[in-house]
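User: Predict the structure for this protein chain, please.
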Amino acid sequence: MRKIAARNRIRWTAACLTAAVTLSMAACGGEDGGDLNLVASQEENHRTVNLFSPMEKTDPHAENVARNAADKTIVMAEEKLGVTVGYITYTAENYEDKTYDEVALDRARNDMDDIYLLNPDVIQILGEEGKLRDLSGLACAENLRDVVKIANTVDGKLVAIPQEVVAYGLFINKDMFDRYSLELPETPEEFLECCRVFKENGVETPVGANRWWLETFVLAQAYADLYNGGNTQAEIAALNSGEAKHSDYLRPGFEFLREMIDCGYIDAQKAYVSEAIEGEREDFLAQKTPIVMAYWGAANTETAYGKTDFNMLVIGFPSSRGQMPVMPMTGYGVGIDAEHGEDAMAVLDEILSDDALRVYAETNRVISPSKNVEVDCVPALQPLNHRIQENVYVLGANAGMKMEQWGNICLVVRQLLSGATVDECMAEIDRLQEESLAK
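Assistant: Here is the predicted structure, written as structure tokens:
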């Protein structure tokens, strides 16, 4: 709980789970935890399955009216199964108290709901505690991409399945790269050279950053070989036993960030206090900053980067294996002792079926967790999508690793932004790994 309470990871959650499921509402609750602004929707005359999430569905009884992609799939399940899905929505107003993750943990541990929409670290915690059902027996599980199964399997059990696979990449102003005859970078060294050229030509800050997503650079460099070198399971086993150290994997990425900070390619002070997209969007759209990092769905949304006055491309992060997408994984889970457990499992099987996932993906233009569902992406996303279709990626969250990566590395990167040395950051990573192994 210390880790989750400390980080208030709501902003990255909004962007990660996001695009369509709107975790941007995941914030905080009442001071004593008992007055959380949770709104329950109940159905008296039919079988009801309760879903806890940040989504808002003001009228769960409405038929054939769906305000977003997730609602459409819920309606499909309700009509086919004859059940009502009652949303228990997290709509807190105070952003300083309990986070969505904290509330989700508490509700799942106390069997308060049937289905839970969960972030990566919570999936890992609840999976390790045995609080989530194994979903591998569902029909929809047979169609999942390997990346989904890998990321959300805990102790041999598939404990969560998402409706979309969230991929992070670098959003590039291709016009600015062309202006200085720069090729799109593949490696960390090539990326730093691009930044140097931009800086020497008067670009004050080549990379727009925020306080949540710089860990994507670190993750891409740290685990590129682990996930793409053909020895994934053995390397994860070595990390989980303590035989190998995460800090040995992570050090090059932290040294890379340290160099970017020292060279002025990133404004560390601004990044430390900036929220995701809010801190860097204006300069990127104004063509003052040629590079930002964001998630797949941001390229589809005009409130993010879906409408630019220049040629934008989304590529992977620099790594020893070239441009590398980074994919944290979220998902729906069912409580082990859910009151309406069998109905909940049936609902999940419907909303995660290929038919429902096709509706979801086509509505939001996102990557489907099903290997059978493909949706045309906008031209800007084609470079990133090409790598993903080649099964080239790094997982930003893997419930099969004892040390949670996405949230922990983000926190340590923030220490780097505030002045910590790389050695101090690696000592903290070692401490976190030792703490996770001692559980």
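DSSP finds 18 helices and 13 strands in the chain.
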